[in-house]
Specification:
The structure is a single chain. This protein is mainly α and 149 residues long. It has one domain. Helix content is 47%, strand content 7%. The chain has a two-stranded antiparallel sheet with strand order 1-2.
């Protein structure tokens, strides 16, 4: 799994309030996990990072080898299909178990990683967009309101 830290103060403050209001955050974390996994999969459809920037297209050599398939989906879409979430002791993690997921997220050069067939640009698919943060606040608010009833 890739670990991405989020420092959105409103979301963190909302989670803190929710934590004080209820003792079991599991339902909120499950909903957050489901939402973030789906949001992440949508990035493969839109070919954009969490900030809305378009991923760099595949090089001509990659297109010749793999055909004119969308970036990061290849022939099978395994990376997108393996995006999942899991609960931790104090939150939820979103990621992929595929070994090459980190290389696609962060990129790398052949000089750094000699086993690569060429330089790979970073194509971030994990992360929290502004729209995601808004929805996370909605989820937190819903669970907080439910707990306070």
């Amino acid at each position: 799994m890739i670990n991405i830290q989020m420092d959105n103060d409103e979301v963190l403050r909302g989670l803190s309030e929710l934590s004080r209001a209820i003792s079991d955050l599991t339902p909120a974390f499950r909903e957050i996990g489901e939402f973030m996994a789906e949001s992440t999969k949508q990035r493969f459809e839109s070919q954009t990072d969490p900030d809305g920037n378009t991923w760099q297209l595949n090089k001509a050599s990659t297109l010749a080898r793999k055909g004119n398939k969308p970036t990061l989906t290849g022939e099978t879409g395994v990376l997108m299909d393996t995006i999942n979430w899991q609960l931790t002791n104090d939150g939820v993690e979103i990621g992929s178990p595929m070994e090459y997921a980190a290389m696609q997220q962060f990129g790398g050069t052949k000089s750094e990683f000699p086993f690569l067939w060429g330089d790979i640009p970073a194509r971030p698919f994990l992360g929290v967009s502004d729209d995601d943060a808004d929805e996370l606040l909605n989820i937190i608010t819903h669970h907080l309101e439910t707990a306070l009833r």
